[in-house]
Write a structure and sequence with these properties.
Elements lengths: L5 H8 L13 H12 L2 E2 L11 H12 L12 H15 L9 E4 L1 H13 L5 E6 L3 H10 L2 E8 L4 E2 L1 H7 L4 E7 L11 H13 L3 E5 L25 E6 L12 E4 L2 H11 L10 H9 L3 H25 L2 E2 L7 E5 L8 H12 L1 E2 L1 E2 L6 H6 L3 E5 L4 H11 L5
Helix pairs in contact: 1-6, 2-12, 3-10, 4-10, 5-6, 5-9, 11-14
Amino acid sequence: MTAPAPWQRVARGARLLDDDGRLATTIFAEMSALAAATGAINLGQGFPDEDGPREVLDAAHAALDAGLNQYPPGRGVPVLLEAVAEHQARFYGLQLDPAREVLVTAGATEALAATLLALVDEGDEVLTLEPFYDAYGAVIGLTKATHRTVPLRGTDFRVDHDELRAAFSDATAVVLVNDPHNPTGSVLDDETRQLLVDLAIRHDAVVVTDEVYEHMLFDGRRHVPIATLPGAADRTVTISSAGKTFSVTGWKIGWATGPAELLTRILTVKQYLTYVNGSVFQPAVAVGLGLPDSYFAGLADSLQRRRDLLTEGLTTAGFGVSPSSGSYFVVADSRPLGFDDAAQLARRLPELAGVVAVPVSAFCGPELAREHSSLLRFAFCKTTGVLERAGDQLARLRT
């Protein structure tokens, strides 16, 4: 049998091919197209509908006017490398060498791709939580590694520690952790974080953390990077980005931090992906990372209010709503409204309520997809007016 081509491995990893090997439309593209076609409120995609802070936008204009329009250095412009290192020290007490332990990337997605391609070989295993962000499956498919998962269970999406222990083996090369978590909005507890580190040490695995929602925790929670835990720093690659934190998702400026030896291997791959990117946006993101604490606290407070507003609307409409502890997202169960198939409901929701959401099953393999078949993910990173209107329209489902 002929081995699948790289694009086929990516497509199968992200479930983009049908059973006959033909390219299929993802549920995310389908829902966004449906929102555009029907004029429905798009709560399916996780992007803000407001611009980011004025200081950051002005800094991008200034960089453009200053002529910073050619290739930046391969690792990133020094001012951003230093800003990322200072951010990690300021918020988490992590001390990094900006010249050796920070790498700027084309968003968090490229950081994830370069990291896995650098650290994983055919025959290795990569462990993620499930549901998982769709790009994880795609990139793992490209590496030819085996994708193992640990399901998040219950209405609060918790990790069963026995299942976590059973999922690790000496073939585990990387454990990829998304915390705060997309799509569920859950946040790992301290015991689970430490167990992940202990198991990674036992099996000599690298921990890769996707922390793009690090400044979006609610109800008094504070983000705890896995790299801060005992024994973790020398085997952890931490990934984040500017897109969510500063409402500039189109800029695609991300970064990876971690031990110099691992970052050098990642850079070796990254230079053959985008090479470099975002010359005028990199110094602007550095300005953003230096904003006062009040900005970051205000971001979390604002999103918490929006979470509460959307949660109230969903509850009033008759959904069962899971608690969201962080991120842009809240998960709602459509079963109380008589819908067992959330994928089918998502396709009908623009007609029924003028709102678009994404089924959680789209983030799962077949087995867990059945378990989460009635769940929808809604994004609350929208203006309060949009969320109020969405809540009013969702109330139609009860009539």
